[in-house]
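Q: I have two molecules that I believe assemble together. Could you output C-alpha cells for the complex as a whole instead of separate predictions?
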Amino acid sequence: MARRPSGRSGAGAAAVAVGALLTLTACGGEAGGPPTLTWYVNPDAGGQERIAEQCTEESGGAYQIELQRLPRDAPGQREQLVRRLAGNDTSVDLMSLDPPFIPEFAAAGYLADVPPDVADEVTEDVVEGALAGATWKDELVTLPFWANTQLLWYRQSVAEEAGLDMEQPVTWEQVVDAAEQTGTTVAVQGTRAESMTVWVNALIESAGGQILENPEAEATEYELGIASEAGRRAAEIIEDIADSGVGGPQLATANEDINASMFESEDAGFMVNWPFVYQRAAGYVEAGNLERSEFEDYGWALYPRAVEGEESRPPYGGINIGVSALSENVDLAFEAGRCIVQAEHQKQYFLSDGNPPAKASVYDDPEVVEQYPMAETIRESLENAAPRPQTPYYNEISVGIQRTWQPPSSVDPQTTPERSEELITDVLRGEALL
Amino acid sequence: MLAGPAFVVMLAVTAYPILQATYDSLFAYRLTDPESRRFVGLNNYAVILTDPVWWNAFGVTVLITVVTVLVELVLGFALALVMMKALRTIRPVLRTAILIPYAIITVVSAFAWFFAFDITSGFVNPTFGLEGTDWFASFPTAVSVIMMSEIWKTTPFISLLILSGLAQVPEDLQEAAKVDGATWWQRMWKVTIPNMKAAIMVALLFRTLDAFRIFDNVFIMTGGAAGTETLSFGAYRQTISRLEIGLGSAYSVLLFLSVVAIALGFIKIFKVDLSQARGEK
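A: Yes, here they are, computed for all two components at once.
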C-alpha cells in the first residue's frame, strides 16, 4: 500500500518545486537575451512588423521589439490601451497612437517625458500637422511617425464630362453639382463612427470655425463652436449631399472601406478619403479585380472647399509613437522609438503600406514620387490640415457629434449644430448620457 | 459547512462586483482622471433616469425582448414537437441539427447576419431583388435583422427546454384523453400544456433574462446607430468607451435591478416553481 506523504515531506516537496521554478525562471531571464520591448500596434499590412525586425537588428542586441496587435478601429485601440495603463500594466513599452487620443493619454500621465535630444531629432523636418498632433500643451509627448490626410479623389473622365476644372480648387457645391449632372456618386463617410467626426471637423474648419475654441480650459468650461455660422455651413453641405442622393443608398453606413469599394465601381464620380485607396486600387489591378483603365482614370486634388475663395482644412490623421510611463525600459523604448520613426523607415512604410510620412523631405524621394504621383498633393494637404479637437475629452466630443450628425439624412442646418453643441456641453458637465 | 467554500466563491464572483459597482455609482469618477473623483450621492441615477437616452434604450430592449421571446416560444414549441415525434433513429441527428445555431458564438452569428444583409457584400439583397436597400440605416429594418439573428441563434435553446417539458407529460394522461375522444388541439390545450407549464415558464424566464441583456448583435451590426442602442450597449458606452466609472456603474446597477425585477416578476406573477421544473416535486 502506498504511504501517504507526511506533512513535513509534503512541505519539503513544495519547497523543492518552488526552488526549481525560481531557478527555471532565473534561467529563462538569462537565456531570453536582450530586454524585450512590447510595441502595441494598430493593424496594418505588415509594415510595422518589418520595422520592428529591422530596429531589433539595428540595436545590435540592446533590445528586441515584440508586437502586440490592437483592435482595428481607433476607439477600440484607445479602450484597450487605457484599460491596460489604468491597470498599471508594465508590459506596454511602445504604443502606436492615433493623434486625437494623445491629449487624454498625456493628461492622465500615461506617457513618459520625451528626452530633449530625442525630441530634437524626431521633430526635425516634420510637417506642421504631424507636429501639432504629437504635442500637448506645447510639449512634445509622442514621436511623429506617419501623418495622414484626406484628398478629393475623382474620376478624370467624370470631371471632364461635367466640365469641372480640377486644376483649380473646387468647392463641395461644385462636386455635388458635377456628380448630379453626370449621374455619378460622391463617396463620403456617413456612418456612425469616428470618421463622421473627421468629416464634420474638416467641414467646420474649412468654413472658418472650430469645434472647440479653448482646449486648455477645464472640460466644464469648454466653449464650443459648433452652433456657429461655420457649423451651419457644414450642415448645409451634408444636407445637400443627402438630399441630392449623390451619396448613394449606403450613405448612412458608409465607412472608408465601403467608400473605396464604391469608388472602384462603374458609377463612381468623387470621393474624400485617405491615400490608402490608391495603393488598394493598384493591388486590385495587379490581382485582376480592377480594370487598369479605371485605375488610370483616378485623379486627386486638395480637399474640397466649404466656402468659395477660402482654403480648405483637410482632415489630419496618422499615428505617433508613445512611450509608456509605466515601462520598465523607458530609455530603451525611446531608443527604439527613435529608430522606428527615422526617415528611411517612414519612406519604407509609405511604399509598403501606403501610409504617408511625417517627415517632409521623404515626399521628394524619387522612389516615393514614382509610386505615389500624388505625393506633393499629400504634403500640401498636410500643411493645410486641421487636427480634430485636441482635448482629453475628445471621445465625448466625437461621440456627441456622431450621435447628432448621423444619419446624414437627418442633418438640418437650422437645428443640428445647436442640438450637437447642447448635447456635448451637457455631457461634459456630467448632466447627460452619451 | 460543506457548502462553505462554494458560498465564498459565490460571494467573490457575484456579490463583490455588485457591491463595488453600487459603491462606485455614488461617485463622479473618470478612469483617466482618478484624482478628481468626488462623492455625488445619487446624482448619477438622477442623470440617467431623466435622460431620454436611457428610456430609448429601455424601450428598444423591451421591444427586442418581447418580440424575440414570443417568436422563439412558438418556433421552439414547434421544433420540440418535431423532435418528440421524430423516429427514434433520427432523433439524435435531428437534435444536433437543430442545436447548431445555438452552438455558434454570438459574435460570429452576428457577423454572419451582418454580412448577409450588408448593402455592398451581402447576398440577401441580390437574392430577393432588393438592391440598394441599406438594412442598417433605419430603425425598423435594422432592429428586424437584429431580432432575426437573435431568434435564429437561441430558438434551439428554448426548444430543448420545452422538449424536456414535453417528455415529462405522462403518456397515460394522453392515452386517457385519446380514449375520451379528445382531438389533437384539445389534448394540447387541456393535457400537454397544463402539465408542462413549469418548463415553459422556466424557458421563458431564462430567455427573457438573456434577451434583455442583448449586446453582441447590436455592437456588431449597427454600433447603436439608427436608434438601436440597448441597455447593455449603453452600459458599455458609459463605462468602457467614456471611461466614466461612476456613471457607468449607476447604469449597470439600474440594468441589474431591471433584470432582478423581471426574474421576481416571473416567479411571483406567473408562479414559476423552479423546484418543480427540476423534477423535485
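A: One point stands out. Residues 41 and 266 of chain B are 32 Å apart (CA to CA).
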